Amino acid sequence: MPTEHILSLLISERDKLNRAIEALGTPVKRRGRPAKTAPVARKRKPMTAAQKKALSVKMKAAWARRKKAKG
């Protein structure tokens, strides 16, 4: 076999391999659940009893104002 023919066969094989590598190298769209690397929601600090009571008083006052304004 002449070397030119062998060289052309090798080049065509290289081109096929390059196309296959490019096709396999593209990222595949994932289906299903997202990966666990997603950011995790920050947790709230627990409220003390005094903070809960203060919030309760504030919200009752806000609801009373809203009810008074509405009716």
Shape: rod-shaped
| Class from helix and strand fractions | mainly alpha
Helix share of residues?
55-70%
Unreliable segments of 5+ consecutive residues: none
Tell me about the biggest sheet? Answer: none
Treating each run of at least 4 consecutive H or I residues as one helix, how many helices? 2
Give, in order, the helices and strands: HH
Strand content: under 5%
Mean pLDDT: 88
Let me know the number of strands: 0
Radius of gyration, in angstroms, nearest whole number: 34 Å
Distance N terminus to C terminus? 100 Å
In short:
The protein is mainly alpha-helical and 71 residues long. Helices cover 63% and strands 0% of the residues. It starts with a helix and ends with a helix.
Molecular structure report:
This protein is an all-alpha fold. The chain has two helices and no strands. The model has no long low-confidence stretch (mean pLDDT 88).
Task: Please write out the topology.
Blueprint: H1 3-25, H2 49-70
Describe the structure using short key phrases.
mainly alpha, 2 helices, rod-shaped
